[in-house]
Amino acid sequence: MSSEKIKRANLLVEQCRYQQAADLFLEVLAETPEHPVALATLGWCQTNCGYSDQGEANVVRALQLAPDDDFIHQVHALCLGAQGRYAEGEAAIRRALAVQPTFSPYLANLAIMLRNQGKAAEAIAAAQQGLEVAPENIICVSQKMVAQIELGHYDAVEETIRLALRIDPEYTIAHAAHGYLRLHRKEYADAADAFREALRIDPHLRWSREGLTQCLKQRYPWYAKAAGFRLMTLSKNALRWYVMFAGLILYGLFRYVIDAPPRQTFYLELPLLIFFPTVLSTFTIEPLALWVLTYDREGKHLLLPMQRQLAGGVVGLAIIAICAFVVAMTFALQRQGMDALSIFVIALSVATPIPPLSKVMDCDLGFPRDTIWKVVGIASVVGLICLKLALASRAGMFPLEVNYYSGLVLIIVNLATLGASTLLPAMRFARSPIR
């Protein structure tokens, strides 16, 4: 009786009907409480139903009952991988491979664990080893293919894509990979067609949706022209910008302190004049492109609700900040320095949340996403306080000189949020949406 229930439960697992499968495994365990395979597979079902701790506990219990069972070690690896614990998952799948060193599904899972740790070259080697045993293992092919794209091996990936489509012409990941290959070659029309084909097969594959979104954004001439500036500011060269801004701030503050009255405001305004447009332009490029896509007949269906909301929020803040910046420049050109500085502070206060807010969707779920939201909160609070001080100073409630210190605080906060907005998206717990 138990064997029949296990067969039915395994069929439900293959159909991803995890809750129903879990119910059947519980019935099996009611009859045979120490059935290790049933315990392990129940743990996998519970993990997929959102009960990770309970699921892992059942898998660990199964391992205690059958410590040399390679299948249970594989299930343990899958459960750990589902929680983003890829290093532990790698160790678990290697224990399964110690029992069955040439079993291609285990090698495919090893490739998954390695790739999600950023070890793309090792993932390719593991996937290739699996293909030598089973040349038509589509999971090994897909992991090799995605890892090659991550490494930028576009010439090699073309052959892997052909192999995948030869095995399964309707394999959505292969069509998406073909799209990224064409995207890399700037063949945007062909890339878009490949992504559309991938989405026809699987409308929910995020990798394809992101690729097609990128293709559609390339239609905007201003987006392509801004790419160099964006990459220069947010890549490894970001440190140079931070050092330059910090130097300008310290020099301006030093000159303001040592100069005899009447003190020159130019050296304090200069960092604002350079820093403000740089920050604003850098971090509004992507949200602006996404916001424009919300009015595109095809593009609006590719964006998640939160993407649309965040893009609209960033663009709204940018419009207000730009208007304030233009007013400030008008005062500055009329040599009304104190008035100009207060408006600069208003503009920068409004723009302060833009860098982290524009990067929320680029951060993985978990620590990076939670942290970037905290950064957004801190930036918003500081910006709001400085905004109120600037408005109060213009109303005569505080001396206008308070804006010097508000501006300095805002620049320091923006330097910190720039760093967080650059580093947090780089903390990739999953190298891509392909598992």
UniProtKB/TrEMBL annotation:
Positions annotated as TPR repeat: 172-205
User: The organism sits in which domain of life?
Assistant: Bacteria
Task: State the UniProt keywords alphabetically.
Answer: Membrane, Repeat, TPR repeat, Transmembrane, Transmembrane helix
Name the Gene3D superfamilies for this protein: Tetratricopeptide repeat domain
Any matching Pfam family: TPR_16
Transmembrane segments in this chain: where? Answer: 239-258, 270-293, 314-334, 340-360, 372-392, 404-426
Q: Which PROSITE patterns match?
A: TPR
**What PANTHER family does its record include?**
CELLULOSE SYNTHASE OPERON PROTEIN C, TPR REPEAT-CONTAINING PROTEIN MJ0263
Please identify the protein, giving its name as recorded. Uncharacterized protein
Organism expressing this protein natively: Blastopirellula marina
